[in-house]
Amino acid sequence: MWAAKLGLAETLAYEVTDQIASWQSRKVSPELEPWLQARDQLESAQRLARRNGAVEELLGVLYSERRRNPDFQQLALDHFTAALTQRPSSPYTWASIADVRYRLGSTTGDYEQVLLNAVLLGPNEPEVQRIVVDYGFALWDDIGPETKAAVLQAIASGMRRNPMEMLKISERRGRLSLACPRVPSDARFPDPLWAKLCEANT
After folding, report:
1. What is the tens place of the pLDDT at every residue in 33-57?
2. 159 in Cβ contact with 187 (< 8 Å)
């Protein structure tokens, strides 16, 4: 019976994972009705499989999709924090906490440690790199040397995977002078403008 419940919980969670991925790939905020249906499915999965960190994390992701609602952002943070009790070594959970806390304006206290944990546990994970570089550069003047080193580590790793993404984040945050020296020598720029921008910032 326990195995059957776990299997059903995983099926429900898998369906919601696909739905969230669809919203994210299209860069759209979900309509309320399908969002509520997804929440109901995850809450059913949660009842079937108690103490399941993956379901808790998915609930956090789902609530975080309602970006304009600070109450839902706080609920997202609550779910991510609960997920950590089950999966403390998940780099994506730490990165998600950094993401939500930045949007809530909660970047003091242990925020730097959250970024450090994300990099330490997921140095080669693309989403971790994106979040750490984005918010690390946004807070660059206020973070300490250890956190700065972790942000630079994340951008160096990200450059090997997708230099254009890293450059666009850095340009938006006004930190091209930190990013351009870390572009791999064999990187190809689809737009020559970026090569010129880097020449001017190195």
Report:
1. 888 888 888 888 787 766 677 888 8
2. yes
